[in-house]
Amino acid sequence: MASNAGNKTKTVSKPAEQVSTPPLFKVLMHNDDYTTMEFVIEVLRNIFHKPETEAEKIMLTIHFQGYGDCGTFPYAIAETKADQVRLRARKSGFPLRCSLEET
Questions:
Q1: CA–CA distance from 38 to each of 34, 41, 48, 63, 98 (Å)?
Q2: How far is CA 24 from the centre of its chain?
Q3: According to the 3-state scheme, what is the secondary structure of 23-46?
Q4: What is the chain's percent helix, strand, coil content, to nearest 5?
């Protein structure tokens, strides 16, 4: 039977890996003359999961300032949400547009 009494194990610790935070992007929704305020609120509530009062506030910002910040996300999520907005808007016959802005 073999014995491990004479064997010594040495543990080498590696320095902690630096994990970088992915860049974040704002999803900006832009005003147009055709998309209804109700539709914008619906999109903000269903795609961005905003409560009613916050969705109304963002919608008014979009209406009066020309664009509004719908949220900040890693690139892949921001792009997916912007695509979901575009798809839902086109299906509903609206030209609603979103863009991404790196923070």
A1: 12, 5, 15, 12, 17
A2: 8
A3: CEEEEEEECCCCCCHHHHHHHHHH
A4: 40, 20, 40
Q: Residue 32: what are its φ and ψ, rounded to 5°? A: -145, 175
Tens of pLDDT, residues 64-99: 999 999 999 999 999 999 999 999 999 999 999 999
Say which residue the tokens 């009066």 belong to.
Answer: 64
Residue 49 to residue 39: CA distance in whole angstroms: 14
> In the sheet where 97-102 sits, what is the strand order?
67-74, 24-30, 97-102
Domains of the chain in sequence order: 24-102 (3.30.1390.10)
pLDDT at 19: 84
The first and second tokens of residue 53, run together, are 């009062």
Q: What is the pTM of this model?
A: 0.80
**Alpha-carbon separation of residue 11 from 8, 14, 18, 96 (angstroms):** 10, 10, 21, 59
